[in-house]
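Subject: Interface between my chains keeps coming out wrong

I've been trying for a while to get a sensible model of this assembly. When I model each chain on its own everything looks fine, but I need the whole thing in one frame so I can look at the contacts. Pasting all components below, labels as-is. Any help appreciated, I'm running out of ideas.
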Amino acid sequence: MAEVPTAYYIALSGILFALGMIGVLTRRTAVMVFLSVELMLNAANLSLVAFARAWGDLVGQTAVFIVMTLAAAEVAIGLAIIVAIFRKRETTNVDDLASLKG
Amino acid sequence: MLTFLVLAVLTVAGGILTISARNAVHASLGLVGTLLMVAGIYATLNASFLAATQVIVYAGAVMVLFLFVIMLLDANRPVEEANPLPFVAPLAGVGGAILAGAFAILAFTYKDPRPLAESTAALANGAPGPVGETLLTRFLLPFEAVSILLLVAVVGSVALVQRPAVQADPEQTPELAALEGEVA
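Reply #2:
Try treating it as a single job with all components included. I did that and got this:
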C-alpha cells in the first residue's frame, strides 16, 4: 500500500484550521466559538501527527496527547465560565459580552 | 489514498456543518463527525493509541460536555439580534481563504526528511506502549505539569459554577423565611 504524502495531511489540516478561524470570527454564541476553537485545535493535532510520521518519531504523537489533555481542561474551564456568565447576564451572545464589567 | 480522500472529504463536510449550522446541536453533531473522521485519519497515520484517545476523550467526553452546556443554557436557538459588525463575516471568509492558500503553498513545498516507508516503521504503529514510554521519559515534565493543570481545571470549574451563598435579607421576617423554607 502506497503511503499518502505528508503534504495532503498538511493541506487538510490547513483547511480545517481555516474553517475553525472563520467559525470563531462569524459565530455569535460563545459555545459556538468554543466549538470552532476545538476545530482549530484538531487541525493543529492533525499536522503534529502527520509530522510525527514524516520524521518517524513518536514525540509528535506524545505532544498531541498533551494537547488533547490541555483542550479537555480548557473546555471544562471555558464552559464553566460560560455557565457563570449566563447566570449573571442571561445571554451567551458574544456581542453583549464585549465589556467585562461585572 | 482512497481511504484518506473519503475521510478528508467527510472531515471537511463535518467542519462546514460545524461553522454553518444555525442550530447549535446540529453544529456539535457536525463536530462529532469531524472528530471521528480525524480519529480515522490518525489510524491511517500509524497512531492507533491517539485514534482511540480521540474517540474516547474528544468525541466522547468533551462533546458530551458541550451538548450538556448547549442544552442547559438553551443555546441551540440562533442569535436573532442584528449583527453590530456586519463586515466581519466577509472579512473572515477572505482571511480563511488566504490562510488555507498559505497552508496549501506550505504543504506542497514541504519535502519529507526521509522516505515515508522507513519512518513509518520507526513509529511502532503508535501503540500505547511506545507512546507511554516517550511520555514518561522525554515528556515527563510536561506530563506532570498537565496533571497539575487538570487538578486546577477541576477545582476551577467547580469554583466557577458554585452558587453564591444566599445573603440574609434584613426585610424578611422569620415567618416568611420559614414559609420559603417549606416551599424550597
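Reply #3:
Confirming on my end. The helical segments of chain A are 6-26, 30-55, 59-89.
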